[in-house]
Specification:
With about 650 residues, the protein is α/β, with parallel strands linked by helices. The chain folds into three domains: about 180 residues, ABC transporter transmembrane region fold (Up-down Bundle); about 120 residues; about 220 residues, Rossmann fold. It has 22 helices and ten strands. The protein has a six-stranded mixed β-sheet, sandwiched between helices. It has a four-stranded antiparallel β-sheet with strand order 2-1-4-5, with helices on one face.
Length: about 650
């Protein structure tokens, strides 16, 4: 299997990885906690190598000395030695494997922990501009690839080097002329391995891409959303046909890979046979001319097979090591990403929060700094690199359709006359010059057209983003001057799209307060009008809600989210009061629950209901990222501006 291992190490050769001194030193830092285990591995390598050299010498002695002398007692001892050596070698290999796995799994643990900790502290901007699949690849594929550099690649290089030196030393001692002949065949082997390796590498990449297309198709059509869509549009036969085509491609490339791979080993065997034939031919001549004995050529032949395998491993070692270093570079790229949201060293903790919230000349845009994002990485066989799953369209096609830079050429919507639509919310700056104050206990309602910037305002309050200009204060403290933990404790947020973990209702509720008692949990659930529903379930609070809460209705999920916020008991409440997709009963229950949630708290609400707007102490009307009107319901109607238009089109017919 040495030949195939060499080919696999060449797979990513065209990435041209660079191994720098700084990178090596940083990699070695991760090996420092395991130097004892690594030293133990080196000792076991030396012991194993030494034992492997004894067997051919035993055969030589048996053939040249014991058998001609008919020494039965010595024959028994040599036979026992042939049994003892592999047994001892097996025990040593078990110890070596334990040491190796301790180092490998330990490095994986260290890297994953460091990566996860780093990612947990990245801003929302990072996650909205990074594919989840890419993060999973860093945490899984790259971490495993990185640990291979320490626990496997380096160990293999050392092992092969030690074995090669030991084998050549013994072979030179046995017969230097045969040793020279055996080494001369090596260039022929390397050239053959490289050429066939390139062919196999290309086939392997095609295989990975084709497998990725098939896997992506399964991922898209076998999840609950995809399966539902296929059934609703009656596309079962078409999807079966599409899958058969992609599975057939996987079959065909698999056959081709097997045939070419088999040819690789055949040719490798022939090249090796050339060297073996030369050695045995010359060695046989030396035996006939009484230069050395039959036992010597038998022992030499045994060493020769080991030498070719070892030298082959060393030939592929540089590329294999460089490839492992690429994985380390990708891991370090994440660890070195700068944070958008930084907590000052002297940040103060908010105490006895009253709940006064102030925006002062706040401007914000979603412009992304590429230096704070992950680089695009070509990963053969990963679903994020596959073409469009259904249409088969490539990213190049999409880029050409949009323009050379991949951005949509439509900046603003246009009317039928081709003129820019003045009602469009498309713009470069998300928020511009926002200023307002929410007094403790007040309800501030945000209203305006879709895309006006209301949600962006709510994201700035808990520091999911920092404003580009201006400042935001809580109780007179700039948000950037307070600790993130105390800020999170002071603010409770319910988004329009409720997210629940695939876990029990109890776990989802206590995520806000892990030490909450059953009485506190039930009290929060009652306030959110969800307790009776939970108790009617067969498992009660221990009912598993399913992935993203899929087993619950929209109204039930929203009420659980409200109960979760109530359990947290924040002084400032931020919520998107979206109820348009709910039935009247769920909407009524949620509206009643909202009264309990907002009571006595400073509340910033994206209002979708007239009842909330009428109850608001301050209404902020937003348009294209600016506050264009502010006041109470009656004051804004008297202005007869944008709010009056929204009232006529959205709220007037509602029952309060």
């Amino acid at each position: 299997m040495h030949g195939y291992g060499f080919f696999m190490s060449m797979r990513q050769g065209d990435e041209k990885p660079k191994v720098t001194r700084e990178l090596l030193l940083r990699v070695l830092d991760y090996a420092k906690p395991y130097w004892g285990h690594i030293t133990g591995m080196l000792v076991t390598i030396l012991l194993s190598t030494g034992l492997s050299l004894l067997t051919p010498l035993i055969f030589r002695n048996m053939i040249d000395v014991v058998l001609p002398a008919k020494d039965t007692q010595r024959l028994i001892w040599l036979g026992l030695a042939l049994l003892f050596i592999p047994a001892l070698n097996g025990g040593i290999s078990v110890v070596q494997r334990r040491l190796n796995s301790t180092v490998g799994e330990g490095v994986i643990f260290d890297l994953r922990s460091a990566l996860f900790s780093r990612l947990q502290r990245m801003s929302l901007r990072f996650f909205t501009n990074t594919k989840t699949g890419e993060l999973m690849s860093r945490l899984n594929n790259d971490v495993v690839g990185a640990q291979n550099a320490i626990s496997n690649t380096i160990v293999n290089i050392v092992t092969n080097f030690v074995e090669a030196v030991a084998l050549l030393s013994v072979m030179l001692t046995l017969e230097w002329r045969l040793t020279v002949v055996s080494v001369l065949i090596l260039p022929l082997f390397i050239v053959t391995a490289q050429r066939l390796g390139n062919v196999l590498r290309d086939i392997a990449r095609q295989s990975m891409d084709i497998n990725a297309q098939m896997n992506a198709h399964m991922n898209e059509t076998l999840n609950i959303g995809g399966a539902l869509l296929v059934k609703l549009f009656g596309r079962t036969r078409e999807e079966e046909k599409r899958f058969r085509e992609r599975a057939a491609n996987v079959r065909d490339i698999g056959i081709r890979r097997a045939v070419v791979g088999s040819s690789f080993f055949v040719i490798f065997g022939l090249v090796t046979a050339v060297g073996t034939a030369l050695v045995y031919g010359l060695g046989g001549y030396f035996v006939i001319t009484d230069v050395f004995t039959i036992g010597t050529i038998v022992a030499f032949g045994s060493y020769l097979g080991q030498l070719y395998g070892t030298l082959q491993g060393l030939a592929g070692a540089p590329v294999e090591f460089s490839t492992s270093m690429v994985s380390f570079e990708r891991v370090f790229e994440v660890l070195d990403l700068p944070h958008d949201i930084i907590e000052k060293k002297n940040a103060v903790a908010l105490k006895d929060v009253k709940g006064e919230l102030e925006f002062k000349d706040v401007t914000f845009n979603y412009k992304v700094d590429d230096s704070k994002l992950l680089k695009d990485v070509k990963r053969y066989g990963k679903m994020e690199d596959v073409k469009a799953v259904i249409s088969g369209q490539s990213s190049v096609d999409t880029k050409n359709a949009k323009g050379g830079n991949g951005q949509s050429s439509m900046v603003n919507r246009q009317d039928d006359n081709g003129e820019a639509d003045s009602t469009s919310q498309a713009r470069d700056v998300a928020l511009e010059g926002l200023s307002f104050i929410a007094r403790p206990g007040q309800l501030v309602a945000l209203v305006g057209p879709s895309g006006a910037g209301k949600t962006t305002v709510t994201y700035l309050i808990p520091r999911l983003y920092d404003p580009t200009d201006g400042l935001i204060r809580i109780d007179g403290h700039d948000l950037r001057d307070v600790t993130l933990e105390s800020l999170s404790s002071a603010i409770g947020m319910v988004t329009q799209e409720t997210y629940l973990f695939h876990d029990t209702i109890r776990t989802n509720l206590t995520y806000a307060k892990p030490d909450a008692t059953q009485a506190e949990i039930e009290s929060a659930a009652r306030a959110a009008n969800i307790h009776n529903f939970i108790m009617d379930l067969s498992e009660g609070y221990d009912t598993i809600v399913g992935e993203r809460g899929y087993r619950l209705s929209g109204g039930e999920k929203q009420r659980i989210a409200l109960a979760r916020v109530i359990l947290k008991n924040p002084r400032i409440l931020v919520l998107d009061e979206a109820t348009s997709s709910l039935d009247s009963e769920s909407e009524s229950l949620i509206q009643d629950a909202l009264k309990h949630v907002m009571a006595g708290r400073t509340s910033i609400v994206i209002a979708h209901r007239l009842s909330t707007i009428l109850a608001a102490d301050l209404i902020l009307v937003m348009d294209r990222g600016k506050i264009v009107e502010r006041g109470t319901h009656e004051e804004l109607l008297a202005v007869n501006g944008l709010y009056a238009q929204l009232y006529e089109t959205q709220f007037r017919g509602e029952k309060v």
